[in-house]
Write a structure and sequence with these properties.
Blueprint lengths: L9 H20 L6 H23 L3 H30 L3 H20 L9 H19 L8
Length: about 150
């Protein structure tokens, strides 16, 4: 259980940094659709976050890693939430994306709050990452074309 006073294994640091980068790629692949500008914004946010998370994770500080990951999740989730609300008005059937964006925003804020604990634990990210991956797969299998991992 990596905390603020232990080293994070390199494989875990790479996994944490890759999660926002996967979201960046998914956003770029979906940017040919109606919300291209928002998807490109999300791709840029996610790319910067991937670097920030990687630097924090390889720096072996769980608190800083939680802040970086949490900030990305909150911002990316807010973008996804806003985009889904806009699409709901014109296309309907956006409930999974609305829920995913809202949960991501809330989770991101909770990660930032958890970073202030004396011994911040990165295990809180595991459930978020697993649930996000499942929502991403469900969204892409539906053919929405605008899935985002965040």
């Amino acid at each position: 259980m990596p905390t603020t006073d232990t080293e994070l294994p390199a494989a875990a640091a790479i996994l944490l940094a890759s999660y926002p980068l996967i979201d960046a790629i998914a956003s770029l692949l979906g940017s040919s659709f109606a919300n291209a500008r928002l998807l490109r914004l999300n791709a840029a946010v996610s790319a910067v976050a991937g670097i920030w998370v990687g630097v924090a994770a390889f720096g072996s500080d769980a608190g800083a890693t939680l802040v970086a990951f949490g900030a990305w999740a909150a911002v990316s989730g807010a973008i996804q939430f806003g985009m889904a609300l806009r699409r709901q008005r014109t296309h309907g059937r956006q409930l999974p994306m609305i829920v995913s964006g809202a949960l991501s925003t809330a989770a991101g804020l909770s990660f930032i709050a958890a970073s202030r604990r004396d011994a911040a634990h990165l295990t809180t990210l595991a459930g978020y990452m697993a649930f996000g991956a499942l929502l991403f797969l469900a969204s892409t299998s539906r053919g929405d074309g605008e899935a985002a991992a965040g």
